């Protein structure tokens, strides 16, 4: 019963943290709507969460807690890099929203190679300080407080929640295909993407220059 509750704790905490409107989720949703490289993007995001949660539970969270200077340095670097990347992506989304010819599911976004897509997936995942705060620090602290035998189940529960979420987000998006068959729907989506990305970029930029 105790070990089952450890799995449930990991699952519930991960589900609560991951189901939120953010840069990574929006990216996965858009790839699902466009039906481009969905499987590798979903797999990459799920495996990244598994890696980060595992690292946190294994002790990185405790290490960062004992070295607050390292936390500040990592947060500053990731905030600045994330602000630059999100600004670029937000501007790109705004340009798509203003150009009717770009609003098609086939993707008139330029070369949509697997390498380019995975590069963007990596940036959305690893340039976001909140990812580290949620997975490494928060989940690492909760999972690390459990007895040694329960920790793998906590990580398994978190990884299961993450994998299910990204599968639903990536592959469930195609159910909205009829809606996004119209250019106007893509215009609205890209406008929302641009707004979210730019707001997040401003927040990260402010954090990078703050005290």
From TrEMBL:
Cellular compartments annotated: Cell membrane
Claim: Metal-binding is one of the keywords in the record: no
GO cellular component, one term: plasma membrane
Membrane topology listed for this record: Multi-pass membrane protein
GO molecular function, one term: amino acid transmembrane transporter activity
Presence of keyword Ligase: no
Highest taxon listed in the record's lineage: Bacteria
Residue stretches spanning the membrane: 6-29, 41-64, 70-91, 153-172, 184-206
Family annotation (Pfam families): LysE
Principal cellular location given in the protein's record: membrane
Key words of the record: Cell membrane, Membrane, Transmembrane, Transmembrane helix
Matching PANTHER family: ARGININE EXPORTER PROTEIN ARGO (PTHR30086), ARGININE EXPORTER PROTEIN ARGO-RELATED (PTHR30086:SF20)
Protein name: Amino acid transporter
Lineage of producing organism: Bacteria, Pseudomonadati, Pseudomonadota, Alphaproteobacteria, Acetobacterales
